[in-house]
Amino acid sequence: MPSSVHEALNALFRNRPSLAVDLLCDVFDIDLPSDTLVEVASAGPGAPAPPAWCEPAHGVIVELQHTVSEEDRQGWARRSAALWLRLRRPVLVLVLAPDAGVCDWAAQPVVTSLPGYVLHPLVVGPDQVAPISDPAQAAECLELAVLSVLSHGGDEAVAGTFLEALAKTEESHGARYYEYAYRLASTDVRRVLEETMSSATWPVYSPFAREHFTRGRATGLSEGKARAVLAVLRARGVSITDEALTAITSCADQEQLDEWAHRAATALTIDELFV
């Protein structure tokens, strides 16, 4: 089951398919055709092939990386190879790394156990994404505004600019992009968004803001509790079935997640979690 982060990232690039191509052109001077197939970390062997009428000349996989994880880097290489097998075309891996330290680590070549196969990820970090401080500019391209928040949202001025831009858009449209930014952001940036939105000094306060602020906080809390349940189970060596994983990660009931967390501390099997 795709995570909320995966869904948000996928929606962001689906709303503007040219975003990945534009980033590759602007940051790395790589000129790709407009028919380039863009996928968000979903190029596994079970993914469907492109429709018959679509014969892209290139493929791009987009990844979001907040932390250092060698396992994740190996995953980039696997997904790149899988997409190449589907398309039989060149494939690039574009990594969004809002943290400068993670960005430097992510840009290193990924050496695999397959002889001769070394992946060279293309990494976009805070130095490559300009902070947007003009609400009008942010409103013109909300996708870039989201990337600006991911990289520079620790600055209250950048977060405030983003929220001002959302307040100038249609309510449902602004709500979606706030949710994208909140789901994709680091914990520190989420905190700044929450504080800025709840501040009485924020000059632009729309009806969607308080409602979505509450929803976003609840979503983040549920995700954190679900991760805690899974972490306890894995630490205790309890095997987690696909059905159990889906049930835990999709649960939005705070009390249920708390109950599962208590049971996870003593459960010997996954079935004992759901009794």
Name the features.
275 residues, alpha/beta, 3 domains, globular
Strand content: 5-15%
Please bin the fraction of helical residues: 40-55%
Counting DSSP E segments of at least 2 residues, the number of strands comes to 6
The residue-averaged pLDDT reads 82
- Cα-atom Rg, whole angstroms? 20 Å
Give the total of domains.
3
Per the principal axes of the C-alpha atoms, what is the gross shape?
A: globular
Residue stretches low in confidence (pLDDT < 50, at least 5 long) are 42-50, 200-208
Cross-sheet strand order for the largest sheet: 1-2-3-6
Mind describing the biggest β-sheet? 4 strands, parallel
Number of helices: 12
Structural class comes to alpha/beta
The termini sit apart by 23 Å
Order of helices and strands: HHEEHEHEEEHHHHHHHH
